[in-house]
Amino acid sequence: MGILIFLCVFFLDSLQLFNGPLFFNVGMAIVSFLMCHEYYHAMEEKGFKPIKILGYLCTLFLIPVGVVKTTTLALICASIMPLVIFVGMCVSIMSKLKFNVVDVAITLLGNIYTVFMVAFLSSTRAMPMGVFLIFYILCGAWFSDVFAYLFGKSLGKHKFSKISPKKSIEGCIAGVVGTVIFFVVYSLCLNNMNIKEFEQTTTGMSSIVQIEEVKEIEQEIKEAKSNKSLIASIFTSNDPQADYEMQEKLKKCFYTNIPLLIILGIIVSIISQIGDFAASGIKRYCDIKDFSNLMPGHGGMLDRFDSVLFVAPFVYFIFYIILKFI
User: Under a CB-based contact definition with an 8 Å cutoff, are residues 64 and 143 in contact?
Assistant: First the structure.
């Protein structure tokens, strides 16, 4: 059910009905809301009292990622964390310590863990070529999970940690191999993809419009750039040329660099498994088996995205470095 919802959101997002990955962001906001609720519920089972409304409201922050300019988004992001702390402490004081400082700290951790880590997914999707790069996060983490589970179940003999007794050293190694295989195969497939279709699409669109109309549109764009209004300064548009340029950079230094892909695959799998163990540690501390029963047999949304949350920041910064400095 969860996978079906994700595919529907991804399909709507691919239609590009709005500037930026709006449908994807709305989907991620929903996922983040569910994970935030599961995390706070787990903490309530342990006797803590997180200020849940603060976490729920923070999930709305994910919607404008990639739809507004990066500088504006950075300002919003930098403002939210201090605001959460300030409001949380105000609630603690006004409630006469019904919500104590530990509850505020748990609330803030929930925001970071289930909201701001998700923001790196939306930020990667908003990059040039983001519709393809996002799978390095999702599939990189999930391939590690699947390979670790399958091979650990059939070949695992040496237990890895008491935090998650079912995980084995053999399974962890298999998870690394699975992620490396995905990174190499997926990269080689993308290397053979022709992004010039973006240029052909835009060329075909512009040929429909008369030359005089094109000039008028170009003039309107220039005027919009010089306009100091808030709306004109915030919203951005899709840039097929940026996709093409990013693809060329990736072809140059990433797609066929097998040693680099192997190293990154190993690191991503290790980070993914750390994310899995971190979630297991939280569940063991709270004395629960799963974060929820949202997907029977598979646990809750946080059970499915625990490894993805840790992988997303690392992969985002890899592609950010390529985008800005290569």
Answer: no
CB of 18 closer than 8 Å to CB of 63: no
Q: Domain segments of the chain: what residues?
A: 1-126, 129-200+231-326
* Percentages of the chain per state (helix, strand, coil), in multiples of 5: 75, 0, 20
Q: Average pLDDT, stretch 263-284?
A: 95
Place of tokens 């200020």: 51
Q: Which of the four pLDDT bands, split at 50, 70 and 90, describes residue 294?
A: confident
Model pLDDT for residues 32-91, shown as the tens digit of each residue = 999 999 999 999 999 999 999 999 999 988 887 766 655 565 666 677 888 889 999 999
Could you give the count of Cα atoms lying within 13 Å of 21 in the half-sphere of its Cβ? 27
Q: Which of 147, 179, 310 is nearest to 302 (CA)?
A: 310
Encoding tokens for residue 153? 């179940």
CA atoms within 13 A on the CB side of 106: 23
DSSP-assigned beta bridge partners for residue 68:
235
- Using pLDDT thresholds of 50, 70 and 90, give the confidence band for residue 19: low
State residue 67's pLDDT score: 64
Instruction: With both helix axes pointing from N to C terminus, report the angle between 22-45 and 2-14 in degrees, rounded to the nearest 10.
Output: 150
The Cα 250–Cα 242 span in angstroms is 12
Length of the chain: 326
The rounded distance, in Å, linking the Cα atoms of 30 and 56 is 10
Is residue 44 within 8 Å of 36, Cβ to Cβ?
no
More confident residue, 272 or 206: 272
Residues 6+ apart with CB under 8 A from 276: 145, 164, 167, 306, 307
Amino acid symbol at 211: I
Question: What's the pTM?
Answer: 0.81
Which pLDDT belongs to residue 12?
52
Cα–Cα distance measured from residue 27 to residue 6, given in angstroms and rounded to the nearest whole number = 7
